[in-house]
Amino acid sequence: MVSTSQNSLLTTKILRIARRLTNCDGDLKVGAGNAIFTAECYNFNCIRTYVKYGNPICPTGDAKWKDIPSVGPAPAALRPRIPKRRIHNRVISEPLVYNDDDPIDFQSNFSSNNNSIIRSIDIKTHTEFPAVPLSVSQENFHILVNLKSNLTGNSDTCRTPIYLVTVLDINSSMRGEKIQLLKGAMRFVIQNLGPSDRLSVISFSSDAHRLFPLLLMTDSGKQRALQALNSLFASSMTNIVEGLKKGTKVIEDRRTQSSKGTFSFIEAERVIQEAFPQRIGGLLSVVLQDLQVHIQSLDPHLCISQLKAGGYSTSLTGENQVGSVDIGDLYANEERDFLVLVNLPVATDGNSNDQMKLVSVWCVYKDPFIKEPVTTEAIQVKLQRPEIVNEDMAVSIEVDRQKNRIQISETASAHAGDTFSADLDVELEEVRSRMVNKKTYERAGRGYLLSGMRAHSRQTAATRGVSVGSMYDTDCMRGMVNRSRATDKTDKK
């Protein structure tokens, strides 16, 4: 028989061992002679962390703890500032306004290497046909404007900070390997963010919770983010609407406004660990911000009939002789294409050398470091206007390719074996296969289609189904995905 004093002494010794194993800094309560807890597994560290957030399920073995350990308050320096919410029928409130994010902290190392980085944008134009007879007028003549951002130098040591909000689905179907892959992907994101980057995480199942506000990813910020991430467990049903609403609220309420996003549809568990790095690879390589393209007619008789820029905002003013397209941010070596449709008038005697000036194109953007506007040199688009034009004149493949992107059909670029057009045809067949009936559409078609629509309308990379690669991928995105794959292989050894 063991006396009460001996029992208490034994409990104290067990507690000391537990503290050494978990580095819990005294936040476990002494059992006063009673068992501290009983469990179906014995990983003290994960028990301590998960119980602190009201999680009764072991993240390693999926065992449910019947007797929850008694946990006292952690020291203030280590205590995660998790907003109050409902956990297991306990109602805890969240703030009404999410304006408690960490202040922006531009560190000196971002500006010290600024001179070694060169950021610029190339503007190229293509007309639908190289020539149009001078006596012919033509409506909706297509002009392609191609933009490509350039970055020279080491962007890892000199880049603008990013502010990232992630919305994570933790419904009951995510139990086991899925949620572990999700956590692994988020850990990779956290590890690759810098001290001037900010991160906020929203989790949702039957309802949604903000795990923490926009935090600077300093060492302490990363520690807090990882603690909150480790507390996640799969439960209940899916309410994606509430998750997206809460994520939007974090963006709308934050101290510094401006943010855009994309939508990826992840169909297979293995894709989770590559979809996140793909997006991070782009976000960490922003070259230009608030990019706006301007188009000006160079002929008093020529008007702009339409600007086809997908999901980007456009405007026409000055009796349709002035237009603009709001592009937003561009990543390193990222491209954007849009079509300018003009109504060609009959050529006049003022056009010298059978050449007609159509429009001029220039860009205005904000340098992400000096935060000042930069205006590029204007590019003039010209068209040959001879008396006679060869009837067999070929259409521009570059222009026709973009017409394909907007409306896939049997066009010249498809017949010419253009790779981009061929990829669009393959994607269209994939979409059709996911829409054979309502059940298939709801299970695998809707998410795939929405992701594709978002990607094509803004010409940005997005994960669709089981494919991470995209026709809009950049080198930085592919590099980050490869880094994630290498990390995953190292962790499995």
Written account of the structure:
It is a single chain. The protein contains twelve helices and 15 strands. The two termini are 48 Å apart. It is of the alpha+beta class and 493 residues long. Strand 3, helix 4 and strand 4 form a beta-alpha-beta unit. Helix content is 31%, strand content 24%. Strands 7, 9, 10, 12, 13 and 14 form a six-stranded antiparallel β-sheet that branches. A four-stranded antiparallel β-sheet has the order 1-2-11-8, with helices on one face.
Index terms:
493 residues; alpha+beta; 6-stranded antiparallel β-sheet; 12 helices; 15 strands; elongated; disordered N terminus
Distance between the termini: 48 Å
Helix content: 25-40%
Enumerate the spans where pLDDT stays under 50 for 5 or more consecutive residues.
Answer: 1-30, 37-43, 70-92, 107-113
Query: Number of helix segments?
Result: 12
Task: Describe the sheet with the most strands.
Answer: 6 strands, antiparallel
Helix and strand composition category = alpha+beta
Gross geometry: elongated
Helix and strand pattern: HHHEEEHEEHHEHEEEEEEEEHHHHEH
Strand segment count: 15
Proportion of residues in extended strands: 15-25%
Question: How is this structure best summarized?
Answer:
The chain has twelve helices and 15 strands.
Set down the secondary structure blueprint.
Layout: H1 4-22, H2 44-52, H3 108-112, E1 118-127, E2 138-152, E3 163-169, H4 177-192, E4 198-204, E5 208-216, H5 219-230, H6 240-253, E6 265-266, H7 272-283, E7 286-297, E8 303-308, E9 313-317, E10 322-331, E11 335-344, E12 355-366, E13 373-375, E14 379-384, H8 397-406, H9 412-415, H10 419-433, H11 438-458, E15 464-465, H12 475-492
Parallel strand pairs: 3-4, 6-15
Antiparallel strand pairs: 1-2, 2-11, 4-5, 7-10, 7-12, 8-11, 9-10, 12-13, 12-14
Helix pairs in contact: 4-5, 4-7, 7-12
